[in-house]
Fold this sequence. Notes:
This protein is an alpha/beta fold.
Amino acid sequence: xxxxxxxxxxxxxxxxxxxxxxxxxxxxxxxxxxxxxxxxxxxxxxxxxxxxxxxxxxxxxxxxxxxxxxxxxxxxxxxxxxxxxxxxxxxxxxxxxxxxxxxxxxxxxxxxxxxxxxxxxxxxxxxxxxxxxxxxxxxxxxxxxxxxxxxxxxxxxxxxxxxxxxxxxxxxxxxxxxxxxxxxxxxxxxxxxxxxxxxxxxxxxxxxxxxxxxxxxxxxxxxxxxxxxxxxxxxxxxxxxxxxxxxxxxxxxxxxxxxxxxxxxxxxxxxxxxxxxxxxxxxxxxxxxxxxxxxxxxxxxxxxxxxxxxxxxxxxxxxxxxxxxxxxxxxxxxxxxxxxxxxxxxxxxxxxxxxxxxxxxxxxxxxxxxxxxxxxxxxxxxxxxxxxxxxxxxxxxxxxxxxxxxxxxxxxxxxxxxxxxxxxxxxxxxxxxxxxxxxxxxxxxxxxxxxxxxxxxxxxxxxxxxxxxxxxxxxxxxxxxxxxxxxxxxxxxxxxxxxxxxxxxxxxxxxxxxxxxxxxxx
Length: 522
Ligand code: NAP
């Protein structure tokens, strides 16, 4: 069994005590142990802040980009090992593991390219100098400089590789040292990645710290200048956003939380067309990819009433032939959820959904599990639910209010108008991403404009992109990830936009030639 060390103060250290046991969710066998007991996190944060911060700020964007490129290459070099660990500890199929691990290298690479394009500068200038008070001499200019603290990253269990990378890439490029805390349940993959990163020697001392396991008093130790980027449950996100000590120290908190993402099928889309196939493919992928444990997964499927039977049939067909079991077997297309606790949560959640909408497919434990012994593993079958009519769809409060983080979705009949679809989606009170499938531009435009205020991202599925769209579930580094309301109100990635969280924008006013030259060559 692997003991997971943490990387604090520039050294690998082992916590005392029993700690937590990480398991293989397909077999329930223990695979690793992690303890963070006895660590002085205040000291570790201070090292990161002072040593790592100064080192990164002395580098240009192009030099920070070189670090990111090296991290991307490291993930690629260790790809096979990381994929295997992901299968072992996350219950992820080969394809699900690739989604996580390749997503990590792709994101590092994308930010390396961005950093290279920013060149030999250490700071960003925001816009042009502007004349002030009708004086030719007096001007104003905005600059963005790295905050002088540490960027603490707390991640969810479902993306141990990509989740760590997508936060790390942006903060390091901005010039802030990173202190990463992965979720304990799946920390094995993150730990191996962290080990490999340190081994490259590419990271300046103090630029990277890694806490393998329970957070302890990590968040209590943050001080003015630090930032906290959190991904996880809405309850914890709300706790951090409202924590008095964070607020009084002026610590920026970015929260990426749950979301009841919707997919809306337009009334113009007929079965058998390219847009229909894209819609069914995207919905089904989101039900079973990573066993439904994706913050971007489609939880609500809005379908014009006349097409509900066709959609149910297509999804049930796909679900019936899906091979479920131990993801170590190459034929398996869906593995277990991440552990027994998560299985319990998902089953309870499915029970809650079933009280309000009709279950049309699914069993708690799927039949015919491949390479799985009787009673072993935290498996949950695909579940499909359906509201009876548009009025029941509007009134299904649990569907609009409660995220089941597993392989399940609910079909919600609507009357085919964009206004009813928009009102129904808005009942989710803010989401990460929703998608609209239609080739009718007027319908799509009206719906998109109504959905935009409630979302961080919208995907428009149409026949023209049916072959090339990765669907709503894939978060791309060029586009913002986050969303208002329930989704946490945060924003990450989005190319250069993502850097803003780690930078202070400062307005400068003074003598125009001085301002214009101040950041020349810096
Ligand atoms: P969680 O239970 O809220 O845990 C999230 C992280 O917070 C874990 O690393 C956890 O560590 C840590 N944590 C717990 N208590 C803490 C404390 N007192 N101080 C600091 N950190 C603490 O969420 P989860 O079960 O891992 O993830 C599932 C949820 O995340 C779902 O609701 C999903 O929708 C959401 N999610 C959102 C996004 C997004 O981008 N919006 C992405 C993925 C997942 P331990 O593991 O050690 O407890």
